[in-house]
Amino acid sequence: MKRFLFGVLLFLLISTSIQAQTNHNKVKEVIVVFKTHFDIGYTDWSDNVRYNYANSMIISALNTVDKSNNLPKDQQFKWTISGWPMKEILSKAKPDVKLRVERAIKSGSFFVHALPFSMETESSDLEPLVQSLGYASKISREAGLPLPIDAKASDVPSHSWILPTLLNNAGAKFLHIGCNPASRSPEVPLLFWWEGPDKSKLMTFYYGEYYGTSPAPPKDWAHSTWLAIIQSNDNHGAPTYEEYRAAVKNVEKLNPGAKVRVGSMADFYNTIIKENPKLITVKGDMPDTWIHGYMSMPREMKSSRALSKSTLNLEAFSTLSTIWGRKPEEPIHTLIDQSIAYINLFDEHTWGLAMSHGRSGYWAYGKEFEKLRAKGYYDDIEYSWKEKGNYINGSEKLILPTLNRELKRLATSVNVAGNRIVVYNPLPWERNDMVTIQTGDGFKKSLKNVATGEVVKLVKNKNILQFQANRIPAMGYTTFVSTDEEGGSTKSNLSFDVEKAMMENEFFKITFDKQSGTIKSLIDKKSNKEMVNTNADFKFGQYVNERFAKTQTDKYAKDYIKAGWNWAYAELGRINLDDTPYKKSSGKNAEIEFSKDALSVTAIMTFKGDADLVHNYSMVFTLYENKPTVEVIWSINGKPADPWPEGGWISFPFNIENAQFKVGRLGAVLDPAKDFVKGSNLDYGFITTGVGVLDKKNQGFGITSPDVPGVSLDRPGLWKYSTDFVPQRGNVFFNLYNNQWSTNFTEWVEGSWTAKFYIWSIDHYTDGSSIVMPSEEIRNPLMVAFTGGEAGKQAASLKGVSVSEKGVLVTFFGKNRDGEGDVIRLWEQNGKTSACRITLPVDNTYKSVQPCNLRGEKTGKEISIKNNAFEVKLNANQPASFILI
């Protein structure tokens, strides 16, 4: 969402409105930074924007550099650019232009800051964010320059508190955030220390009025140094020489007596830190007030979450395969880098064109919308959204076939003849889980774990095989073969009763409401607690479609828009709506079918569309043998495109009074009652792991989805902006889709897709065992491959990397992108400081590990590896990286 002003430089806007803010506090020095706001799209199709970056835009900037070379050094033009656009410029520019750009980087005329571009950070995951720093690092290293210590984010109003953790642990010192002028801003000081969940502190400059800053400081500015960021509008590029000189003279005029020099954000930090500034420390997360836009592409968002894991799992698997004596047949790291680039680009804040541009149709609904779409009036805007989705499609094309081939190669390599199934565990602790594979016949009624000798039941449904795989080694694998032996206990804890609409296993008893097709009662059999709040406004496991009214969209716009109503309403509200009232719909009179096999019992609810709810969907509820979780699957078939403001939810009202929530966000589990900064998004946010709903005894229930990150607590949070909301009722709502953003996110959601949810009981709450570990196991399923034929030479079961503290993640194990050798990265997620022992595979050749930061810079003394292991102290929620030597 961007301000719709083209061809107007920001400094001209500000210099007109800032006259009353002439420097009253005698600032001694002003560092002037020039930047443009990069949108990878929005002003045009993204491919066209990329072309302009490497041609007209960079040539214009180079011309301004050249014309300013006769000025004193500190008055010469310098331009700050984020990492990924500069990477694109260097790779796509014509040879003569590329040479000029390289000279400008080496001479300091172009500064490349640490971040790749403006991102919606909480849509990402830990390791993709780390890898995103590599664009700027690589450019700096190749130019023989120090790594940048400054970083810049523009437009997006609020960000995950992973940023201070990420940047501080990468060696960066300073972050500037420039907010979109229409959007409400978090309630933070202008300059402050932002403390991340690992206690990292980062000097942060938050400017709520626009992308950059004002030419002169406000009257209450307490420091001797000011940062004047003159940032041009969306993809406008660098100023001409004349505009540049006018901007500098304007800064001089508004700061009489101050030294004015042109430089970088790092120059500002290095100057102001010498003042020993007394800054407030802000401890808290700032949920993104735009983040719901990502659920306008629910299928791609689901795939992005999976690819954030599987891409890095493939890297680790490839590294382990080499240690185990079986090198990959293709350059895996090249595929990984491209996949990560696609994931990063999906997390970049631009989605496509906006209806307000007038280039592609206009806001219409019902039959008028269908007519315009049929005539092709929305083709341009729909193509721009397709460009965004193609990043995820591109990542899938790289990773899924490669991972499939590598797993099959592993199955072929093990020293077991005949039909065998190999199961690989991508997590650094031993685990058990259900495995599903599709293959032909050739298996009997049971399987034997070659390593342990355990015999397990095998359920066959035509070509679909399922079994419980136990004791799969940490980041290792084991092999299963067919056997006639009896597998497991002959007594089953699974049952169902059609008349009572009930099913159960050892852990839970579920009773369904036949009319609504939802859960009426869910008993935790161990504690005899009822999970379901039957007095809630929503039912448990209920699909709800909301269609919003103009009164609601207008109220949201009035609550959220802080400036520029005349243009911002078209970007943030929803124009051309009539007075149709709000409507909340759910399916009813479901067709219910129960089924049971040796491993699971299932209830399938099928709902047919009617006048109240026009699309078909189904709900599948499953209990597994020996598995203390409830699985819920929602599936929609043929949802029609509809630009009317709407959203879909699955509701889970838990039976807990005065609920306390634990939310697994990016980098840490937090308490929304105290860890969210006011002014950010208190109504809706993304989770990375799961949610705990607890009573005063720290007991309760956990829930997560590997597919749906968007969550509201207490009540659905679309088209709401609250400044002081604290959730109290134990209700969790997962947002299946929405089209709330009226700017450049996808404006109508259609098609068929599925989403899974998992629920479990919490007895004694801890971050690791109650939230992180179960959620990570759900997001990182066991990986499986089948083959037959002759035996290979590799052991039937091998261990990989293990950690002594479960809940400590290995987010990266692979080729060092910042130098020689391999890197292993740990990320503490239990929320506690502890010593952790890391055990490496037996046949590794590593002798020691060298601590380094997230950008590969050495940070401490080498640690010896003894008996294939080393031990480190990990601070709560902190990453720890090591070069393996």
From TrEMBL:
Gene3D superfamilies: Glycoside hydrolase 38, N terminal domain, Golgi alpha-mannosidase II, Golgi alpha-mannosidase II, domain 4. Residues 503-636 form the Glycosyl hydrolase family 38 C-terminal domain. Transmembrane segments: none annotated. Pfam families: Glyco_hydro_38C, Glyco_hydro_38N. Residues 30-244 form the Glycoside hydrolase family 38 N-terminal domain. One of its GO terms (molecular function) is carbohydrate binding. GO terms for biological process: mannose metabolic process; oligosaccharide catabolic process. InterPro entries: Gal_mutarotase_sf_dom, Glyco_hydro/deAcase_b/a-brl, Glyco_hydro_38_C, Glyco_hydro_38_N, Glyco_hydro_38_N_sf, Glyco_hydro_b. Keywords: Hydrolase, Signal. Residues 1-20 form the signal peptide. This is Glycosyl hydrolases family 38 C-terminal domain-containing protein. It comes from Pedobacter nyackensis. The lineage of its organism: Bacteria, Pseudomonadati, Bacteroidota, Sphingobacteriia, Sphingobacteriales.
